[in-house]
Specification:
Membrane-bound Lytic Murein Transglycosylase D, Chain A; two-stranded antiparallel sheet; alpha/beta; six-stranded mixed sheet; about 350 residues; Lysozyme-like; about 10% strand
Length: about 350
Amino acid sequence: MATPISADRFVAALRAEGVRVVERSKWRTHNRNHKGPWGPMNGVMIHHTVTSGTANTVNICERGYDGLPGPLCHGVIAKDGTVHLVGYGRANHAGRGDGDVLSAVIAERTLPSANEADTDGNTHFYGFECENLGDGRDPWPAAQLDTIERAAAALCRAHGWSAASVIGHREWQPGKIDPEGFTMGWLRDRVAARLKSKPTAGDSTGSSGSTYVVKSGDTLSGIGKRFGVSWERIAQANKITAPYVIKPGQLLTIPVKTSGGTYAPPPFPDGLAPGRSSPSAKGLQQALKDTGWLDPSVPLSDTYGPQTQQAVAGFNRKHNLFSTGRPTDPAIGRRGWDLLHQLAYGP
């Protein structure tokens, strides 16, 4: 339970957590405070908008519509991960929900099922509307999910709350389904992990691709073909290991499709191996990173160092590419180079 933080602290907390913020004109004083109390604050509520187009979505959330005047939230989280601030104070976002759920949020314990609408949620929750059609098919880009996590964590950090103070509209009000496309348990786990470390200043990159909800009959290889990304990269991005099982309803991060060819291949048939380092090593290292064989933190270098050798040896072993006949072969030959780049960047 807490007094609402000031608008200046609100935007500062978001930026300190690495959120890109757009401040709409007069957002600090745009509210519904004349209709009821705002505060004490008890948590953060996440919604989806059932709209498309960022400009359209922001305008609706700022102005509202017939029968429900704006603001309809405090911030709109767009597909690209930008938060557009549209109001501050009481907003028409939560509506009436279950008082037992509010008690659980205050106590930071497991939420009961919402089966009543006896408590004014606009008094007690910060609200973020997230641009999405809410049909279970409209994708949630990784940049947007990253910002949802950061924005929720920013307010939890500002108030000293745990991730248990972050809830979805569907957990608050009977009959609501938002947000659709990811689970709140999954989001709370991400917020909890973020709160274990200091806030990371600087914008989220938005370069990590998009997301996909697994449907019945889907396979990693089929999803990879749909997005033009190797299934190995999808498995690596989602920490999926052998036997590479995915389940309907599972939310997958789809890595961004990158373009190869920046670096020329090494001379063949000798290929590239320790003792024959060249600028081609950078192209090899980048492809190894893009397929999950080399840690992204390893800097690109002309030097064919131990980490590159270890990654190549693992790649060769998996694909039976032993040009020297040894299962720990650290050299990349023509077949290995071509296969690696095909997996990373497509045919």
